[in-house]
Specification:
86 residues, alpha+beta, globular
Length: 86
């Protein structure tokens, strides 16, 4: 699963050729989330509130890049890296 961004111990990933609503995956320690892109929301999983807040902030800042990466993955192309939360 390609990692498209990492920050504060959080890894953001997108799978190739996934189906369903546009989304990305989050891994933080033993926690995993699936986050919708439009709207940005937790679709599945659990993580500390602070992690969810940081990922949500990051996703808001990079929504267009995430949607573009979703389309790339759906077309069988590798996703591009996205700047981390600073």
């Amino acid at each position: 699963m390609p990692v498209i961004s990492t920050f504060y111990g959080i890894a953001i990933m997108m799978f190739y050729a996934e189906h369903g609503v546009p989304h990305f995956h989050v891994r933080y320690a033993e926690h995993q989330l699936v986050m919708g892109i439009d709207p940005i929301q937790v679709l599945a999983g659990e993580a500390p509130t602070r992690v969810v807040s940081m990922v949500t902030e990051w996703a808001e800042l990079h929504r267009q890049e995430l949607l573009s990466n979703w389309e790339r993955c759906r077309d069988g192309q590798p996703p591009l890296r996205v700047a981390p939360l600073e």
